[in-house]
Amino acid sequence: MRSTLLSSEIAEPYAQALMSLARDNDLVDRISEDVTSLLSLMSESDDLRACLINPIFKAEDKKAVLNQVVREQLHPFTYNFLMILIDRGRIIFLEPICKQFQELVRQLKQTVLAEVTSAIPLSDEQQESIRQKVKGMAQAQQVELDTKIDPDLLGGVIIKVGSKIIDASLRGQLRRIGTRLTSAV
C-alpha cells in the first residue's frame, strides 16, 4: 500500500506537468498517443522495462536506449519529458505517470474507462454495444474499452467502470445460483 501511495504521489505531479505542456501547445492527442505507445512498449518488452527501472543502469545508458528505441516515434516534448524523468531519477515511475496522464486525458474529454473481461474476444458489434450501455450508465461523452480475455468465465462478460462492477458472466451467474441454493437450505 505504501509503495502505491508513494508512486501516485510522485506520478500525479509529473502527469499534471505533462498535461499542462500538452494543453498549452494544443498537443493533447499527440502526446496521448505517445503515452499509449510507451505503455504498450513497456508491457511488450521486459528488457526495456528492466533497463529503465533498474538503478544499476546509469542515466546515460537509459538515455541511449531510449534514444535508439523511441526517439524517432515520439514528439520532441514527450522525448524531452522522458529525459527529465531520467535526470531526476523518476523514470522508474514512468508507468504510473503514463497511466495518470491517460486518466487526465479521459477527464478532459469526458471519457470513462470500462474494463471488460470476457471468455472469448468480443466482436466489434459487441464492443460497440458495451460502449453504448456504459455511456448511458456513466453519463459519459465517450467510453474507452480495456478488454481482457479470461477463459475461466465460461461465457458472458464482466464490466468494471470505476468502482461499479457488472458481472454478466456465466461463472458469476453460477456462483449466484449456488449462493441462493445454499441459503435456501
Helices, strands, pairings?
Blueprint: H1 2-24, H2 28-44, H3 46-53, H4 59-70, H5 76-87, H6 94-108, E1 111-118, H7 124-138, E2 142-149, E3 156-161, E4 164-169, H8 170-184
Parallel strand pairs: 1-2
Antiparallel strand pairs: 1-3, 3-4
Main location: membrane
Pfam family, one: OSCP
Family: Belongs to the ATPase delta chain family.
Let me know the largest β-sheet: 4 strands, mixed
Taking the alpha carbons of the first and last residues, their distance comes to 40 Å
Which CATH C-level class of the largest domain is it? Answer: Mainly Alpha
Give the integer mean of the pLDDT values: 88
The CATH homologous superfamily of the largest domain is termed N-terminal domain of the delta subunit of the F1F0-ATP synthase
Low-pLDDT regions: none
Could you tell me the CATH topology label of the largest domain: Peroxidase, domain 1
Q: How many E-type strands?
A: 4
Percent helix, as a range, is 55-70%
Strand line-up of the largest beta sheet: 2-1-3-4
Strand proportion, as a percent range, falls in 15-25%
Helix-strand sequence: HHHHHHEHEEEH
Keywords:
alpha+beta; Peroxidase, domain 1; 2 domains; four-stranded mixed sheet
Could you please describe the fold and organization of this structure?
This is ATP synthase subunit delta. Its main location: membrane. With 185 residues, the chain is α+β, with helices and mostly antiparallel strands. It folds into two domains: 2-107, N-terminal domain of the delta subunit of the F1F0-ATP synthase (Peroxidase, domain 1, Orthogonal Bundle); 110-184. The chain is built from eight helices and four strands. It has a four-stranded mixed beta sheet. α1 crosses α6 (94-108) and α4 (59-70) runs antiparallel to α5. The radius of gyration is 20 Å and the shape is elongated. The model has no long low-confidence stretch (mean pLDDT 88).
